[in-house]
Design a protein that fits this description.
This protein is mostly helical. The protein is built from 25 helices and no strands. The two termini are 40 Å apart. 58% of the residues are buried.
Length: 560
């Protein structure tokens, strides 16, 4: 560890520490102020369903600006280049718009407190239990990723051992979530969004200046034997997908990433949906992911491009890319760029931005974890019919327990040189089969409760089988191709088995499915005319979604 410490040590001065200290003061202050608004479990877990759309929209996107987005995507940028934009323009925006336009009326209109609770109403207890347990497990695993990277920053900055850094970082996040619940998480996520942009935008600008502007970056990547022109174009993205055939690569990206993994993550992941459920009314809930889509589409320019710059401008990372040797890997791209390019003061802001991103991601994992475990597991199956104060206390203690488990799962994350590989595997296990069950159940009233849980279990098992075959070399797909294949296979198996099981089991009545199935839900219950207030063209979800989708198409054409 000493060699790595010496390579990544950031030369922070007093001004840098002052900036970091001010940020933590604000974070804990927000947690303390939010505590005053928590009087019951609904306030703690869903902010009393009282927040405006612009707040929940920024929190929606900031909750995703954790380790996955910042370190993972910059690592992908260093390794794969521009094809990484598919995680945003193909693998995020369309699904976010679908969530806002089509699915939020069902979530918000049914007044459920979580995604697993929606599964309970649609499919019954077995599917609900499978979904709740798998979601809780996924959150502590992903929280471990954010925690590990947060600890890495503290380790690099102060030289503390990783284990001590993990504990200190966990305590910081735990403090404000335990105090103020979801409101503390959301208002901190809004603050963190602006801090992250303020930190990464200057790094991108300074980095481009270092390599001679955009054209200089293009020339260096083109001349790099491990780079080449393929890393300057989004399509066909063969190195990212693992398919050498361009046609298969495009299909894999569109179906595996753009449809199964993306829709599985954004439309059924309670981490994100929880922010929309905290909105003050249906219109605000629908606009939450749509508002988030606008900053989301421009995040690649301050995350992926610094990774690409680091791969050609930082000698340590150049060596790793060429030979696979050395004391750094792709996950270190941003830290290496900060070390080499930023003066003091700006360095402190950049470190604060990284800390903010990991805290936002981990806080989102913990706030959704404590909600699902409290409402969907403890209240539903273990300790029933207690007063509201009991479940409020339970939620706070679960935040502590989830943090402790995340400290353990951080060790798993430390074993991956590119954390996006690890995270995409998790999404193929948990999100892809859930989306298959969800989308079939929402649009096909004949789907039965038995099909719900059988499809979920079989889909997850299929993704795990693909992962094992890939790890043993039976399936040879470099990059993140195995995750795409696993997600696609899980989706197809889930759909096929669900259809077969549904045809031989008894469905619910139409009356029971009202508000849960698209064709059986009255149009006025999911139309914009039913919204309270929020008039004006700029507050119409479908119009905003159309503008966002048009911008994404333009970006794909320009950088394709």
């Amino acid at each position: 560890m000493l060699a790595l410490d010496s390579i990544l040590r950031l030369d922070a001065k007093a001004i840098d520490y002052i900036i970091i200290a001010l940020y933590f003061t604000f974070v804990l202050g927000i947690g303390y102020l939010a505590k005053r608004a928590v009087s019951n479990s609904l306030d703690f877990f869903l902010s009393g369903r009282s927040l405006p759309a612009w707040v929940t929209g920024l929190a929606f996107i900031s909750a995703n600006l954790g380790a996955i987005e910042i370190m993972g995507m910059s690592a992908n940028g260093a390794q794969y280049g521009m094809p990484t934009v598919h995680y945003f323009w193909i693998g995020a925006i369309p699904a976010m718009l679908f969530l806002g336009v089509v699915m939020m009326p069902f979530y918000y209109g049914s007044k459920v407190r979580s995604v697993p609770e929606f599964m309970l109403r649609r499919f019954g207890k077995p599917a609900h239990l499978v979904n709740a347990i798998s979601f809780a497990l996924a959150q502590v695993l992903i929280a471990g990723v954010n925690l590990f990277l947060l600890a890495t920053i503290v380790n690099v900055l102060l030289g503390w051992p990783i284990w001590l850094s993990v504990v200190i970082a966990a305590v910081i996040v735990l403090s404000y979530i335990t105090l103020g619940g979801l409101s503390a998480a959301i208002y901190n996520e809004v603050l963190q969004f602006f801090v992250i942009v303020a930190a990464l935008l200057p790094l991108t600008i300074v980095g481009l200046h270092k390599v001679g502007g955009w054209q200089g970056l293009v020339d260096k990547i083109t001349a790099d034997p491990k780079g080449g022109s393929a890393q300057l174009h989004a399509w066909p993205g063969a190195e990212l997908s693992g398919f050498h055939n361009s046609f298969l690569s495009v299909i894999g990206l569109i179906f595996g990433l753009g449809f199964v993994l993306s829709f599985g993550y954004w439309t059924t992941n309670f981490v994100e949906v929880q922010r929309a459920l905290a909105s003050k009314n249906m219109s605000a809930a629908r606009r939450t992911p749509i508002i988030g889509s606008f900053p989301k589409m421009f995040v690649p320019f301050i995350v992926i491009i610094p990774g690409m710059i680091a791969a050609v401008a930082v000698p340590d990372l150049q060596k790793y890319k060429q030979t696979g040797g050395g004391s750094v890997d792709y996950n270190d791209a941003l830290l290496l760029l900060m070390r080499d390019l930023l003066p003091n003061g700006m360095l402190g802001l950049a470190i604060t931005g990284l800390l903010a991103s990991f805290m936002a991601g981990m806080a989102a994992n913990l706030s959704s974890f404590n909600t699902v475990v409290t409402y969907d597991l403890i209240e539903r199956y273990i300790i029933k019919d207690r007063d509201d104060a009991f479940y409020l206390r339970t939620g706070r203690w679960l935040t502590v327990g989830g943090t402790i488990v995340a400290i353990g799962t951080a060790a798993i994350a430390s074993g991956y040189s590119n954390l996006m590989d690890y995270l995409q595997q998790l999404f193929s296990f948990f999100n892809a089969p859930l989306f298959a069950t969800f989308i079939l159940g929402m649009f096909w009233k004949r789907m039965t409760a038995a099909a719900g849980w059988i499809g979920l279990v079989s889909g997850t098992a299929t993704a795990i089988v693909v992962f094992v075959l890939s790890e043993n070399g039976a399936i040879d797909l470099p990059g993140q191709g195995a995750s795409f294949v696993g997600a696609g296979a899980a989706f197809v198996v889930d759909i096929l088995l669900s259809v077969v099981v549904s045809l031989v089991t008894r469905p619910k009545t139409d009356e029971e499915l009202k508000g849960l199935v698209y064709s059986l839900t009255p149009k006025e219950d999911r139309s914009e005319a039913a919204q309270e207030g929020d008039h004006g063209w700029y507050r119409k979800p479908t119009l905003l979604a159309g503008i966002s989708l048009a911008l994404v198409v333009v970006l794909n054409v320009v950088f394709g």
